[in-house]
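tool=predict chain=A
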Amino acid sequence: MLVLILPVVLLISLLSAGLLLAKEDNEKDEGLTNYYDVSVNKGIAYVSYHQGKPVLNLFNEETNKNQKIIEIENDKRIVDPSFSADGKLLAFVVQSKDMENNPFSSVQVIDLETNKERELFSNQDLVTEVEFGRKDTSLFFLGAGTFTNYSPITGKRPHDFDIFEYSFETEGIEKLTDTKKYSMTSLVVSGDSTALYFQSDDDSEAKSAEEIFQMKQRIFSVSLDHPEQYSVFSDVEKETDIFDFAFTPDGKNFIYQAIANPDTGDTFQYELYLYSLESQEEKQLTYLESYASHPVISFDGQTLYFMVDSNFGKDNQEKWHFYKMDLKKRKADEIKLPFSN
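tool=predict ok
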């Protein structure tokens, strides 16, 4: 009896310990994340964690008032809040924290005038980003077809990306592209709603393993009249990788993230740069020697918002800070959000 009972007791103990540890891990998340957006009314929607629970907040910089919009259970996360063009709607994605064993994504929207929340759709595929069309009749999103590790030395990540469109009128979803990109980020809708932009690897000429290793990260454009076609929008000769980016409202410039010290051999420093499409000149905007990311430009084109991970390169614990910059004065100031670290 002892021989039969002891292994069962041991198994139950191990399972219980595993559940407790998993619960503790879910409760460790705390403070500010790098997911946010800024409305036409300069309202700041951002995601934070409170005792492991994801919280979607709305902050008014002028009144310094913070409103908790929604809080969900700690086995899920909230990512990529996105305002509609008129600032009345706020869309966001709810994901499972354990996409490997429990894949789940839900795209939801909140009417900020009535505080009514509704789910647009949910599925087991991974939705990573959402972006309103300029006329607010559509919601574009990035969807990944697989959640795997393509290399034994990397963790599991979403792959096989494409762009989709959700119609508020028909409540239907249309797949716009068929790229199956290894990675795809920074979905942007053009000011006239005729094109989409995204960041990805430029693998069009890569045929060997060496060429794949040397490929660059660039900005791509997709015409909504012919979404089956996409092309490199940024400079194809540029040797520096372009990561996260945002366009100015007039469409004449874009601000992007890039490595400032690629050849020093030190820990990479990610800074923000301004690129003029007319003069084809670039200027460095930030000199924080850290990890500046996720640029968002105000609707009047005068203010740049961005996130900084002050703990980048030190350990795996991110420590996010929220900044804004007057694009004329080029001076960055931190905004203390109520749930920041």
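Confidence is low (pLDDT under 50) at residues 7-12, 19-23. The radius of gyration is 21 Å.
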